[in-house]
Amino acid sequence: MDPIDPKKKPANGKLIRALVIMTAGSFVFGWALVPLYDVLCKAAGIGNAEAKAGPSTAVESIDPNREVTIEFIAEPASVGSFDFRPTVASMRIHPGKLYDASFIARNLTNVASVAQAVPSISPTGTAKYFHKTECFCFSPQKFAAGEQRDLPVRFIVDPALPVTVDKLTLAYTIYDTTQSATRP
Fold first, then answer.
1. 3-state class of 90 per DSSP?
2. Cα–Cα dist 161/163, whole Å
3. Strand 141-143 relative to strand 113-122: parallel, antiparallel, unpaired?
4. In what helix (H) or strand (E) does residue 9 lie, and over which residues does it extend?
5. Using CB atoms within 10 A of its CB, is residue 39 exposed (0-12), middle (13-18) or buried (19+)?
6. What is the layout of strands, in order, in the sheet containing 90-93?
7. How far is Cα 156 from Cα 26, in angstroms, rounded to an integer?
8. For the chain, percent helix, then strand, then coil, each to nearest 5?
9. Fewest C-beta atoms under 10 Å: which of 32, 51, 156, 184?
10. Within 13 A of 102's CA, how many CA atoms are on the CB side?
């Protein structure tokens, strides 16, 4: 066995300290990623943070003197798997009142499929004023081959929405998640 060179002892100690610090830093970074991602998505008004939180039970007072236009947009992310569109392009609403809207989705394949919709609210920062009480985006949707159906969404726009905002856009992108839904 070779004796340890006394000149290498300080270098080895520095390397071990650097490796321990790097390992601890990697652990802390990995642990903080999920909450950081949720905060960023909520601040940007994107993602599916509302679905994770569950349906809102907000009860608001209706503002009969104010109207806001809600535009609906639907996009299929997986080309050729689904036909996806809103039943109406827009609607005028009174903040504080509960409204229903729906989207139509049709499986264009000849096999059963699973789809997941991801919502987005614009303009940026207004998602906190848009409360979905029921939404097809809360869970994956299973479709038979060629099946078409209405997908409902119930929502309330908070009367605290800034008066400078008179139009909101609720956009959904639907993803074919059949492959990930069938993995063990």
1. strand
2. 6
3. antiparallel
4. helix 8-44
5. exposed
6. 90-93, 68-76, 167-176, 113-122, 141-143
7. 41
8. 30, 35, 35
9. 184
10. 8
Contacts for 127 with CB less than 8 Å, ≥ 6 apart: 42, 45, 46, 50, 121
* CA count, 13 A, side-chain hemisphere, 152: 7
Q: Which residue has the tokens 């299973």?
A: 142
Amino acid symbol at 146: G
Nearest-angstrom CA–CA distance, 158 and 94: 9
Give me Rg for the CA atoms of the chain: 24
